[in-house]
Amino acid sequence: MKTKILTLMTACMLGLSFSSSAAIMKDSKKEKAEVTFLVSMTCEKCQKRIENNLSFEKGVTGLDVDLPKKTVTIEYRKDKTSPDKLKAAIKKLGYTATPFHVQKEGKQKTE
């Protein structure tokens, strides 16, 4: 009887360790990144159009469209999309998109 209980407990412990390591491996594939673009939007309608379309792009997990600064900051999963694909999605909507980087001194830089 004790042998059965010991065997059952060992099997349960092994099962739990395999499932937790599988969850860790899944999460590592979901590595996120962020990219910011200067976009040629001019009005609130442009802002809404970008928000409504880009939020449904594959891999997009977060989106911040700032009309006064004319920037679009996109958080995305690296395994699902790339900055080039996101830039193409913005261009497909009819806007120009230029990668935007903030330098450490707080100055803005475009490429």
From TrEMBL:
Signal peptide start-end: 1-22
Keyword terms, alphabetized: Signal
The keyword Signal is assigned to this record: yes
Domain of life: Bacteria
Residue ranges of every copy of the HMA domain listed in the record: 32-98
Gene3D superfamilies reported in the protein's UniProt record: 3.30.70.100
SUPFAM superfamilies: HMA, heavy metal-associated domain (SSF55008)
Signal as UniProt keyword: yes
UniProt xrefs under InterPro entries: HMA_dom, HMA_dom_sf
Pfam families: HMA (PF00403)
Name this polypeptide is given: Heavy metal-associated domain-containing protein
Organism per entry: Bacteroides gallinaceum
